[in-house]
Write a structure and sequence with these properties.
Blueprint lengths: L12 E5 L5 H12 L13 H7 L5 E6 L4 E10 L2 E9 L8 H15 L4 E6 L6 H7 L3 E7 L5 H7 L1 H7 L8 E8 L2
Parallel strand pairs: 4-5
Antiparallel strand pairs: 1-2, 2-3, 3-4, 5-7, 6-7
């Protein structure tokens, strides 16, 4: 019998590009994943417009169970010779099963295939489990910075004018740690 010691069948995970009709499902995964954050930390949501602009390019990757449940997703895009990992979320009830690791491995493979120099991301030191998670996967802290929310993809997609026009209305949420895995 396939499965763990309790006899539960292990779901097979399918990694694939997100479809344009999955915006709300990905927002739900993100909301569910954010329940883990303490002190009211909330990841700024991406807009449906940004999602629709990115979706055809494969920037969003979905981890789906064979039962059809979206278990998690990643959002990455090219930036200055690197692949920038903007989001990596896993449903709270599906954590600890390697879903995030599979998504991260896929992002790294995509960066290698695209001949990118590195995979870069930013995270919050307050999210104490992230630094060890990425360090275990050979990411190193390259700097700390005070930054706008990880809403950065809006700047890259729609130009720096977006940031300049909206800077005052975006609430900063502290120091980010920028991490990077240099690819060989």
């Amino acid at each position: 019998m396939d499965g763990d010691s309790e006899g539960k069948k292990q779901s097979r995970l399918i990694l694939r590009k997100a479809r344009s009709d999955e915006f709300r499902a990905l927002c739900e995964v993100q909301r569910d994943a954010n329940m883990r954050y303490a002190e009211g930390y909330v990841q700024y949501p991406f807009s449906e417009d940004s999602f629709n602009k990115c979706c055809p390019y494969g920037c969003f990757e979905v981890a789906q169970t064979d039962a059809g449940t979206i278990a998690g997703y990643s959002f990455s895009f090219p930036c200055e010779g690197d692949l920038y990992l903007c989001h990596l979320f896993t449903r709270s009830n599906m954590r600890g099963h390697g879903i995030g690791a599979e998504l991260l491995d896929s992002v790294i493979a995509k960066a290698r295939y695209g001949k990118k120099r590195a995979v870069t991301l930013s995270t919050k030191p307050k999210v104490h489990w992230n630094l060890p998670y990425y360090e275990k996967r050979e990411f190193s802290v390259i700097r700390k910075k005070r930054d706008m929310p990880d809403y950065l993809f809006g700047c890259f997609l729609e130009g720096l004018s977006f940031y300049r026009k909206n800077r005052e209305s975006l609430k900063p949420y502290g120091v980010n740690v920028v991490m990077q895995k240099v690819l060989g």
